[in-house]
Amino acid sequence: MAGVVSMKDIRKVGAIGGTTLVYYLCTTAFATAIGLFLANTFQSHFPVLSVSGLEYKAGESVSAMDTLVNIFPSNFLAPLYEANMLQVIVMALILGFAIILVGEKAEPAARAIDVLNNIFMKAMEMILRLSPIGVFCLLCPVIAENGAKILGSLAMVLLVAYIGYAAHALIVYSLAVRTMGGMSPIKFFKGMMPAILFAFSSASSVGTLPLNMECTEKLGVPKEVSSFVLPLGATINMDGTAIYQGVCSVFIAACYGIHLTPSQMLTIVITATLASIGTAGVPGSGMVMLAMVLQSVGLPVDGIALVAGIDRIFDMGRTTVNITGDASCSVIVSHLLRNKISTWSSGETKAMKEAGNSMSTLASNEAESSGVTNDKE
Ligand code: ASP
């Protein structure tokens, strides 16, 4: 909800807001599909683990049509107590948009959501601090019973995720900036290198935001565009995270000896795409969202322990893709809408700044409550 509410000024910026949103959602859905495709291709290299704690009972399989119909809850509370994650996300999006449409009268609700978001982020951070102990306890029996082969398969799942990251960045973004952004991909990646390296080492989109703005502005993106598109991207656009979630869902399913059905894969694409709106641009949040994705298709959440120990290595790659996706969008938007931008009145420029500011505030609040700063060092 906080992610949606932070977009409250988007309609003031019209075509630019629409183009940015469509690009972000389409590339994220595509990224999840790439992750699922690659992981399915390499599935035979993932082990089926035999561990007493890792039993799983398959639920009923549902058709793709039912999956789509089921994303809407029958009532307001059911998704919460049934822990139906996809419905929870859909409900949050609907309520978020309703708050925006109500406007000024709903201001207190918007503020309350912002405060609650910070509280939940803090709680998540506290829980994550304890996670090494939990992961250790969950992994001990797995390693005791399966031996070193689990380490080999972890290396394999990492490799698959990195192939996905590289394929998405080199194929999708290169094609996008070349065809819709009018820029050579080599120039784009060269110009983005400082931000890419910083994202890789910090694993935080929000922390990389100032450097990302600097790089895109040097590539010729007007400040008005970058100051709106990039904070929005750091808040809602997570292509690398989507690839990771696709790959890890298949990996975890394979470890439990489960084959995902096409409708489960469709659910993963929808959940990962919508969940990216609520994923904070700080280290580790993609792993928390993975719990949601697993739950949406009835996979055991405990399975996260299998990949949690090496999450930082996943995170470095996925953050790099996340910020590169945001930057590619800013290049495309400034190229596609260049005529509109050059005739902007000061009112529109002001609206862009306001929209960018409200998203930057959400992003930096989230970063602050999880201990990430915007400092370049
Ligand atoms: N660390 C990522 C980012 O900042 C989010 C994630 O954990 O996937 O973009």
Describe the model.
The protein is an all-alpha fold and 377 residues long. The longest helix is centred in the middle third of the chain and has 40 residues. The site of aspartic acid has 16 residues, from α13 and α15.
Please specify the SSE layout and strand pairing:
Blueprint: H1 2-5, H2 14-41, H3 64-69, H4 78-82, H5 85-102, H6 107-146, H7 149-179, H8 185-202, H9 205-218, H10 223-236, H11 239-255, H12 262-278, H13 285-296, H14 304-308, H15 311-336, H16 338-342, H17 346-369
The structure holds aspartic acid.
List keywords for this structure.
377 residues; 17 helices; 75% helix; 0% strand; globular; binds aspartic acid
Question: What is shown here, in short?
Answer:
The protein is an all-alpha fold. It contains 17 helices and no strands.
Q: What global shape is seen?
A: globular
Q: Which H/E pattern describes the elements?
A: HHHHHHHHHHHHHHHHH
Could you report the average pLDDT, rounded to the nearest whole number? 85
Q: Let me know the largest β-sheet.
A: none
Helix content: over 70%
| Poorly predicted residue ranges | none
Total beta strand runs:
0
Which ligands occur here? aspartic acid
What is the number of helical segments per DSSP (H or I, 4+ residues)?
17
User: Radius of gyration, Cα only, in angstroms?
Assistant: 20 Å
| Through-space gap between termini | 31 Å
- Provide the β-strand percentage band: under 5%
Alpha-beta content class: mainly alpha
